[in-house]
Amino acid sequence: VQLVQSGAEARKPGTSVKVSCKVSGISFINNYLDWIRQAPGQGFEWMGRIDPEDGGTKYAQKFLYRVRITADTSTNTAYVEVINLRSEDTGVYFCASRGTKGVFWGQGTQVAVSS
């Protein structure tokens, strides 16, 4: 099982970033795909998740209006896009696929937001 995420990103405040997560070795459509963030020196923060089978999403209240999670079943790839970036969005973004066979994590993508 592999969840391979896109590379590190550097952005300025007010811009947007889109991180990808390509899943292999397990069924993409039969597992929820979560996005979790870890800011420097802080714990993990759940951002939201998508059901790739029907595209249904759920977001943490904090991210409801600035985060969009999508999934492309033709490439088994999920995406998280954060708009109107702020310095506090700096951190490592992880994807995780969870289903009956367990939870599998991507390697993490560093996103740095600074002016």
Question: Could you characterize the architecture of this molecule?
Answer:
The chain has 115 residues and is an all-beta fold. The chain is 0% helix and 56% strand. The protein has no helices and eleven strands. It has strands at 2-5, 9-11, 17-24, 32-38, 44-51, 56-59, 67-72, 77-82, 91-99, 102-105, 109-113. The strands form two sheets. Strands 2, 4, 5, 6, 9, 10 and 11 form a seven-stranded mixed beta sheet that branches. Strands 1-3-8-7 form a four-stranded antiparallel beta sheet, with no helix packed on it. The protein is globular, with a radius of gyration of 13 Å. The N and C termini lie far apart (37 Å). The mean pLDDT is 96.
Q: So what's the overall shape?
A: globular
- Please report the total strand number as a whole number: 11
Question: Which structural class should the secondary elements be placed in?
Answer: mainly beta
Distance between the termini: 37 Å
